[in-house]
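About this split. The held-out portion is used to measure sequence recovery: a designer receives only the structure tokens and must propose an amino acid at every position. Recovery is the fraction of positions where the proposal matches the reference. Here is one held-out target exactly as it appears in the evaluation file.
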């Protein structure tokens, strides 16, 4: 299908394939990132980074379930210095963009991490995660609109490199409008919709128990469960945000049709989360990409701009 072009641009950087990993699954260690670099993913993004190494929550903290997943990871990661060092060590041979995800445990920590990135030689986009629902005692910034405004004001006082925002899912139409009004004030280059749906509960009926240990079993829900919500968020923000702010779709993408639906709603790229935990990295990206090419060919499309954002209303 050489005539089917899956390339896109995010923050001015070309991705040969619009499909890449979500921050979370299989992107924490050097080995993880090396495998992603060798895959057919169009980019790689790191695990959401804190200022220092974090072990995260006690196990079991991630469980595959029939229609998706539940997790309360607690931000296990190797710290921002590790991910910046990985970039430096691979900078000359990188064949695709490397995004870094940032999820400090406080506003000051986020600012410190972003200052470090801003003064480093790292030049690819940063995804600032305002939607981490699984750190005990820490609210999601994305659900506090005044706090989001404050965070972005402080960030853009100094940060001039490419930066996007990862958001939690929204459910009320007025919340889409309120968040879009905030984001439209700032030189944000992309928005990733969505992180997992926070604080779901999955039951092991045989043992009459929860299935993950942290937070008495409450965790973020991913996979098939969240695709309709993710699509709604992609669509609403594509409609409400400035046209120069791109949307990265994330949530419930396990095949080419799912990716197509995200693009039809307005996504310029898509990220794979839960499915990347269920399937080998290499086969996952190759399979979904081929399924998307096949569907595009059936419909007579040769590039994503042929149908991006062109969802029809009744």
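Reference sequence for scoring:
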């Amino acid at each position: 299908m050489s005539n089917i072009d899956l390339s896109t641009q995010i923050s001015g950087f070309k991705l040969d394939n619009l499909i890449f990993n979500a921050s979370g699954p299989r992107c924490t260690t050097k080995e993880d990132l090396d495998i992603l670099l060798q895959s057919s993913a169009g980019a790689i993004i790191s695990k959401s980074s804190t200022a220092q190494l974090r072990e995260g929550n006690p196990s079991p903290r991630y469980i595959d379930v029939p229609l998706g997943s539940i997790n309360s990871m607690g931000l296990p990661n190797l710290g921002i210095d590790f991910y910046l060092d990985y970039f430096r060590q691979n900078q000359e041979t990188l064949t695709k963009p490397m995004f870094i995800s940032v999820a400090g445990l406080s506003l000051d920590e986020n600012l410190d991490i972003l200052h470090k990135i801003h003064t480093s030689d790292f030049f690819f986009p940063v995804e600032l995660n305002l939607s981490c629902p699984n750190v005990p005692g820490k609210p999601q910034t994305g659900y506090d609109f005044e706090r989001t405004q404050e965070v972005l004001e402080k960030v853009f006082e100094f940060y001039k490199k490419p930066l996007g925002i990862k958001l939690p899912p929204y459910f009320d139409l007025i919340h889409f409008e309120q968040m879009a009004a905030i984001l439209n004030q700032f030189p944000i280059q992309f928005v990733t919709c969505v992180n997992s749906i926070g604080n779901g509960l999955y039951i092991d009926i045989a043992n009459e128990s929860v299935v993950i240990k942290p937070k008495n079993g409450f965790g973020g829900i991913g996979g098939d469960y969240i695709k309709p919500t993710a699509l709604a968020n992609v669509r609403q923000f594509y409609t409400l945000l400035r046209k120069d702010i791109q949307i990265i779709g994330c949530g419930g993408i396990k095949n080419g049709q799912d990716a197509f639906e995200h693009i039809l709603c307005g996504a310029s790229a898509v990220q794979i989360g839960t499915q990347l935990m269920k399937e080998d990295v290499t086969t996952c990206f190759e399979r979904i990409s081929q399924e998307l090419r096949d569907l595009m060919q059936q419909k007579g499309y040769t590039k994503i701009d042929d149908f991006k954002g062109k969802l029809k209303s009744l």
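Annotator remark: The mean pLDDT is 96.
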